[in-house]
Amino acid sequence: MNGLFDALERAAGPVTFAPGATLLRGFALEDAAALLAAVDAIAAAAPMRHMVTPGGYTMSVATTSCGELGWTSDAQGYRYAACDPDTGLPWPAMPALFDTLARDAAAQAGFPGFQPDACLINRYAPGARLTLHQDRNERDFGAPIVSVSLGLPATFLFGGIKRTDPTLKLRLAHGDVVVWGGPARLRFHGVLPLAHGTHPVTGAYRINLTFRKAR
Ligand code: MD3
Ligand code: FE
Question: Going by fewer Cβ within 10 Å, which terminus of the chain is more open, N or C?
């Protein structure tokens, strides 16, 4: 029933649905298999783990990173670090395909010259969620964040500048890319608990890549 709508949306190219927030439906579809193979290689060197928040909660989402910097969380707080605290090693390098895809998407959304130095990789199993939060550990809020969704679909919550502002729901599916910059950069956002399902490429998971300029 949504097939035609999706097709039209695809043909129309980038859709800016809020100031600074642009959806590129299916932008990563052709690269999906290569992206997922790269995620497997990264996770072999820097295993997916459930980080503990400064408040003492273990996250339901499993994470790893690649690039010059990786995102970490522990009792001391959230931060970006050059080494993986679990292995003591530098995070795996950002694959050229990741960098190219993120730059191209950002440019299409009106952010030419985006140079990500970190890619946070989130893995959701059914039931995993991300409560409403802001991304403010990066130094330069002038740079956008580019997100790539792979595997099982999720309902994304897009809020306002205050935690209590109303939220808009956005269905993000395999291959969808969203660029969040300018006035959207500091808006609250989250992901509802992932529904059970099986995706032909990722099985029982959703994988989300977020490209950031952390320093
Ligand atoms: C809107 N990840 O890792 S990606 C995160 O699907 C995170 O795994 C979610 O939020 C996920 O921090 C959402 C979409 C996203 C990422 C960053 C944003 C939306 C954003 C920053 C500002 C506004
Ligand atoms: Fe976030």
Answer: N
Q: How remote is the CA of residue 188 from the centroid of ligand 2, in Å? A: 8
Which ligand 1 atom is the nearest neighbour of the CA of 185? 22
Measured by CA distance, the residue closest to atom 14 of ligand 1 is 147
Q: What is the residue extent of each domain of the chain?
A: 2-212
* Ligand 1 neighbourhood includes 102 CB (under 6 angstroms): no
* Nearest ligand to residue 205 Cα: 1
Alpha-carbon span 172 to 214, nearest angstrom? 24
Tokens linked to 43: 């996770």
**CB burial of residue 191 (10 Å; 0-12, 13-18, 19+):** buried
Fold for the domain defined by 2-212: Jelly Rolls (2.60.120)
Query: Residue 39 — φ and ψ, nearest 5°?
Result: -60, -40
Amino acid identity of 65?
S
Asked whether the beta carbons of 192 and 131 are under 8 A apart, the reply is no
* Any ligand 1 atom below 6 A from CB of 145: yes
| Rounded Cα gap, residues 99 and 103, in angstroms | 6
Beta 118-124 vs 62-67: how paired, if at all? antiparallel
Q: Residues 190, 118: contact at Cβ < 8 Å?
A: no
Query: Is the C-beta atom of 177 inside 6 A of ligand 1?
Result: no
Q: Across all residues in the chain, what is the average pLDDT? A: 95
